[in-house]
Amino acid sequence: MKQISNDRVMKNIVLLILPQVQLLDVAGPCDVFTSANIFLADQKPGSGYKVFLVSGIRDKMITSSSGVALSCSHTIYDIDFPVDTLLIAGTSLSVLDEIDPEIYHCLQDNVAGVRRMGSVCIGAFVLAKAGLLNGKQVTTHWKYADTLQNSYPELDVNVNPFFIRDQQLYTSGGVTSGMDLALALLEEDFGKPLAAEVARHLVLHLRRSGVQSQFGNALPDYDIMSSFVKEVRNMLKQNLSKNITIEDMAENMNMSVRNFSRVFLKESGITPGHFLEKMRLDQAKNMLEYTAMSIDTIAEKCGFSSAVSLRRLFIKHISMSPAQYRKAFNGAE
After folding, report:
1. How far is it, in rounded angstroms, from Cα 84 to Cα 13?
2. CA neighbor of 250 nearest in space, from 270, 264, 234, 237
3. DSSP β-bridge partners for residue 157
4. Which sign does the torsion angle of CA 239, 243, 244, 247 carry?
5. Digit-coded pLDDT (tens) for 298-316
6. Which of 28, 74, 149, 227 has the maximal Cβ count within 10 Å?
């Protein structure tokens, strides 16, 4: 890549694409930047963005996760123009294991010549493996935040924001969060009025309220838990409405409290008490979404001492009250 000149009027945006990319990871940011060009043509003629789809493999044709083929103008190995901003679109974790290691060297060699570098969704894993996120606060899709943190402990992973900026590096959450990030980049470049105009044009909020964790489960998928953690989880699920202590959990597993706590932390990555709290939160969210039970009843069935305790946990983890969550995800008033 050639080094970008900071006084360029047209800013070259590269969307780096890998096999099995999700279309919205590409199309969302693309539409934000190209929509901005429509308004800039009248407001600031000659300024705006040139958006390039660039393949992360040797082939310029990339097949998306939905089966739609994308034709790229370049590959990462033959970019012959200056790059202002490079964003890595998301894909599946399995694809990341098949990436040519040379792609990480390309990113490492060119980060200094790019004004901004970032990722959408699982694209953060590519930046992390290239060593570009060390010591940074980052985010990714809520479903894979724990995996990113455990795989790269030198990162500070925050699952809540839709996007995070740490110096010249930007990471965004799951899928549509790429549009939140693109709007923020647009606001940096051309100001809030234009970003707001583009958001209205695309029927988006300039800044979404809430946090990303509202959309996901507090705990990872059951299928990826170890057999030990699954056994504990199944016991807790059957007794969630009761006052469960760590002593109860250890006794059920025929272990001392100290040994149980040590093994559970090693197997799950979190303490037994924190795991139980997250289980109760997930169960409460599920009941708010799919039942008409009162909040007091839900609190009791999930093992909370009162609806006030349930509310405190919701505010702590997802910045919403149970009533606000129900309205957002159930439609009930």
Report:
1. 6
2. 264
3. 138
4. negative
5. 999 999 999 999 999 998 8
6. 28
d(CA 265, CA 192): 45
Residue 75, amino acid: T
Based on its alpha-carbon atoms, the radius of gyration of the chain, rounded to whole angstroms, reads 23
d(CA 85, CA 138) in angstroms, rounded, equals 17
328 Cβ partners below 8 Å, 6+ apart? Answer: 210, 214, 320
State pLDDT tens for residues 163-217.
Answer: 999 999 999 998 899 999 999 999 999 999 999 999 999 998 888 876 676 676 7
Q: What tokens were used for 234?
A: 């199944």
Contacts 24+ apart (CB under 8 A), 234-239: 236/275, 236/276, 236/279, 237/279, 237/283
Please spell the DSSP secondary structure of 228-287, one letter per residue: HHHHHHHHHHHTTTS---HHHHHHHTT--HHHHHHHHHHHHSS-HHHHHHHHHHHHHHHH
Distance of CA 85 to the CA centre of its chain: 19
CB 261 within 8 A of CB 272: yes
Other C-beta atoms within 10 Å of 31: how many? 18
Q: 3-state class of 16 per DSSP?
A: strand
Cβ contact 148:130 at 8 Å = no
